[in-house]
Amino acid sequence: MRMPHTRRQPHAKPAPSAQRRPWSTRVRSGAPKRQEQDEAAASGLAPARAQLHQGTLHSLAWVSQQLAGLTPSGGETALPPSEALELVVEVEFAGYRSGRVTLAFARGLTRQIGSNMSHMANLDGRQLNALEAAKEMASATTAELLQMVFGLDARFRIGQAQAMPPRPLLGELQLAMAFTEGTVAVAVEIGQTSARHAG
Question: What residue ranges define each of the domains in the chain, with the CATH number in brackets?
Answer without folding.
Answer: 33-193 (3.40.1550.10)
